[in-house]
Design goal:
By secondary structure, the protein is mostly helical. It folds into two domains: 2-241 and 371-476, no CATH class; 256-350, no CATH class. 69% of the residues lie in helices and 0% in strands.
Length: 477
């Protein structure tokens, strides 16, 4: 592998450039970008860490031993990944976080030639494969997550390798490995579960002239995907008698059912729950949004609910910056508050169905595709980083255009991969922008990383095609 890399000077230079870029970020850039001394830890890091620590110390996997639903608070993949380093680092979390941040950075450097290898098999030519590897090597929205102990990066790493094996289905056992890796990736980030149907469609379309072989390969992928991922929902059913296929955040003190009900209510009327959520936490005057209630009776109910959220919700009081002490359990009004927000949401949906099912999802899609700034632009680094979202939007447009052109071509694998790219993009974006379940409509760019990255391959295809056409025009002139 190293010999081949050294012989391919272009790929070697891309790898070195990508490595330098990542090392500069983890040693210098991350501190400026995040504006904090500890770049390795963010808000959700402790949930994965505590889940594994509780498994070691208490004998069961849970983020919050005081609540039954704490057992389902986080998918186990990243917790066990952190836990492996936690054991190696002598049960010292601060050392663990630093080591993991560096390990993720090094793993991401090693993924650059894997992306090249995937593109080389797919695009059948070195030049577009080099373009794909370069796009990944300098893709800022992956690099920014390298040092952070969140499940984003490791799920990307696993996805890259699952694509590597998926594109080599002619080799024995590769379908099994691709399916098992995809299931493992789903244990890190639930977005990868949505890639499973796209994998199936890829295989069936690739082998459409030999349906029996296509069904055989798709079945192998499905079986090993289920064996890999299925351990989690099976554990939940056997140990707790609950059917929880992914995760349930209500086990966390700050993600109580009434807080989630409020978030769901807000996402029924607008694209985010700020600044209203902050106004509750900080006990400031509450700005009532358009479409916030369906009747005068509901407007009064909303005012009552907001007052309760500010003063007697234990869940709201666990959020950082809450204006007074944490509400004791004896004074918690969370159950009644959850009912209020659930009723308000149901009435809003009934009164304004077009707004709920069409306008808000379209605004979410607009935000997801054409985001042009970070929510926090207090520093010059954050303001400069906001410009990069224009680059992200451009790559998405290039990727979708390239995927359409790939599908219109004659090569079987290109058409199949184009189908995979488009289907996965549509599933993730529509699910997150228009979904009605908890945590859907919560538009964060990291949630879209996986389909965005897969679009880098058709984007490289299109860039290569355009550059060839331009060179021909120059030569002819």
């Amino acid at each position: 592998m190293i010999d081949k890399l050294l012989k391919n000077k272009s790929l070697f230079y891309i790898l070195v450039g990508g490595a330098v870029f990542r090392l500069l970020f983890i040693t210098v850039g991350a501190y400026i970008y995040f504006g904090r001394s500890n770049i390795f830890v963010d808000g959700d890091t402790s949930a994965w860490a505590h889940s594994f620590q509780n498994l070691l110390e208490l004998g069961h996997y849970t983020a919050n031993p005081e609540k039954e639903m704490g057992a389902f608070n986080r998918l186990p993949g990243y917790s066990f990944f952190l836990g492996l380093f936690y054991i190696i680092c002598g049960h010292d979390w601060q050392t663990t976080y630093k080591v993991v941040g560096w390990a993720q950075t090094l793993l991401d450097i090693s993924l650059i030639p894997v992306i090249y290898a995937v593109a080389k098999v797919l695009l059948k030519c070195q030049r577009p494969a080099l373009i794909a590897s370069a796009l990944y090597a300098f893709y800022p929205f992956v690099i920014v997550w390298n040092p952070v102990c969140y499940s984003e990066y490791m799920s990307i790493f696993i996805m890259g390798w699952s694509l590597f094996f998926l594109l080599r289905t002619e080799v024995r056992y590769n379908c099994a490995v691709a399916g098992a890796l995809l299931g493992l990736g789903g244990l890190f980030r639930p977005q990868l579960l949505l890639l499973a149907p796209a994998f199936g469609l890829y295989i069936l379309y690739l082998y459409r002239q030999s349906l029996v072989q296509g069904i055989k390969h798709a079945t192998i992928i499905a079986v090993f995907f289920i064996l890999s991922y299925g351990s989690w929902p099976l554990r939940n059913f056997i140990n707790y008698g609950k059917i929880i296929p992914v995760q349930d955040l209500t086990g966390a003190n700050n993600w109580s059912p009434d807080v989630i009900a409020y978030m769901q209510y807000m996402f029924a009327i607008k694209t985010d729950w700020f600044p209203q959520f902050t106004q509750i936490i900080e006990n400031k005057p509450y700005e009532v949004s358009p479409f916030a209630y369906a009747s005068k009776q509901d407007s009064l109910k909303l005012l009552t609910a907001i007052d309760m959220a500010k003063n007697c919700s234990r869940g709201f009081s666990h959020w950082r910056g809450y204006w007074k002490d944490i509400v004791p359990e004896s004074a918690d009004c969370g159950k009644e508050l959850e009912q209020y927000f659930t009723e308000l949401r149901a009435n809003v949906i009934k009164a304004y169905p077009v707004h709920f099912y069409l306008i808000v999802p379209l605004n979410n899609l607009k935000k997801a595709l054409f985001k042009i700034s970070l929510s926090d632009t207090k520093t010059m680094a954050r303001k400069a980083a906001s410009v990069l979202f224009i680059y992200r939007t451009l790559l998405i447009i290039l990727g979708l255009t390239g995927a359409i052109l790939m599908f219109l071509g004659a090569e079987h694998q290109l058409r199949s991969f184009a189908l995979l790219s488009i289907i996965y993009f549509l599933i993730v974006y529509l699910f997150l922008c228009a979904g009605t379940g908890p945590q859907t409509r919560n538009i964060e760019m990291r949630y879209f990383l996986h389909p965005d990255l897969i679009l880098l391959f058709p984007a490289a295809f299109l860039i290569n095609r355009l550059s060839i056409k331009k060179h021909k025009q120059i030569a002819e002139s």
